[in-house]
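Write out this protein's structure.
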Amino acid sequence: MSGLLGIFLLGGCTDDFTDINTNQRVLSDIDLATIGNVYAKVQYDGLMSGWNFQISQNLFADLYSQYYSNWQTKFNTDRNLLNRDWLGYAFNGFYGNCGKNLAVVLEKTDPAVAPGLEKQYALAQIWKVFAYQRQTDYWGPVPYTAVNNAENSVAYDTQQSIYADFIVLLDAATTTLAGFAGENAFGSNDQIYGGSINKWIVFANTLRLRIAMRISKVDPGTAKTQAEKAVAAGVMQSIADDAIFKVSKSDNSFNPLPIMLPWNEFRMSASMESVLKGFQDPRLPIYYKPAKNTGLFTGMRNGLSVAQISEEKRHYDMISTMGPAWSTPGNEYITPIDIILASEAYFLRAEGALKGWSMGITAEAAYNKGIEMSLLHWGVDAAAIATYQAGVTTPVALPDFSTPPMTDIAVKWDASPAKQLEQVITQKWLALYPDGWEAWGDRRRLELPKLYDVVVSDNPDVPVGKIMRRVGYVPSELSTNAAAVADAIQKLGGPDVASTRLWWDPAK
């Protein structure tokens, strides 16, 4: 396969979405000989990896989901402040790369104009759902149907209509792929499944289940129907089904976390410390490393003031960094990027079963299978898994700020229905690590896990005790696509601030 990020004519960050959307200088030159390479680039850019990772995920969702806390005194997003300039790079990085190139792949493989490429078109449809769900779950209304319309103004779609189209696309894609079972599409250009149609069918079904659960508060009827449809069609059941992006130095696709860790800007959160220590979780030394100066696993509360961060006891060498998979030099081209795992599929089924949906498994059995799949994914042996599933210890208190235990649940399935959902989502949160993008979605939808409040909030719209509900629209759009953004805010149903709830996140 040729260099993934070597297709410079199709990519690159910019501050002007209008230019991204209307610059057609090279798009018409793409032919079928290169479409596989473009698809490979779309996969990577859809993850917002590479140099867009920090200002799209690490400084926002990773902090809001409390996988990490911020140590850098110059950064303020951990104190709930929206940095729209950073978000501008994230927004334009997506639309200038994945959004634009994905439209090209769909155009060039559309069976109406390119008979014989139905498989490739279906895979592109599935990836469109995955990539755009991440975008709409950040902002709410986003450009969707009008991307690459070659107009000066680019309309935003409602989140409700985008989610409705996700279901349409998944229906079309899985119907198409059913006729090609056992075959291959894109081959080595597919850095997730190597082009396996069977694997992509299972991925699409699992993505449908994820989407169904996301809308379960706002549209429970559709959610139930789609979740049951996904399970009946076949979702991920073993770690062999895990969707994992394989980084490669030869293709210039890298995992950004190993590159960022030496910058000493983020560390283990107090929430993760309380839970992992309390549960005696075998993933603790996998997810994190002991602090350099103490040899202890130590987290840090989120949302500290500059003065608090600057105290010697919170020097970065006193707080745990990420584990060996990410902190080992050179692992940026070795450690893959998890996308959707079988563990998540089981936790989704457990939650569905608690709702009374037909998930083909009991909530308790799905919960324990989710734990098993996560621990197997990280190489934990069967005996340790069984011991962990039977664990009755609970999260621990922490000395800094006299912080109490994060919650009072154990790992062992609780007899109380009131605690079972919290157990499912807390274990799902642990299994999703380090995918803060998805974990933040659950936190908003359910306000679970019961993470610690930030210590300080610099955002009056999101005071201490409240959580971030979305990110805000970006300066380049406000200046060059103002009418469309104004319309998007109307579609949002509230002001363009971090406390406004998304469509799928209605107030209780």
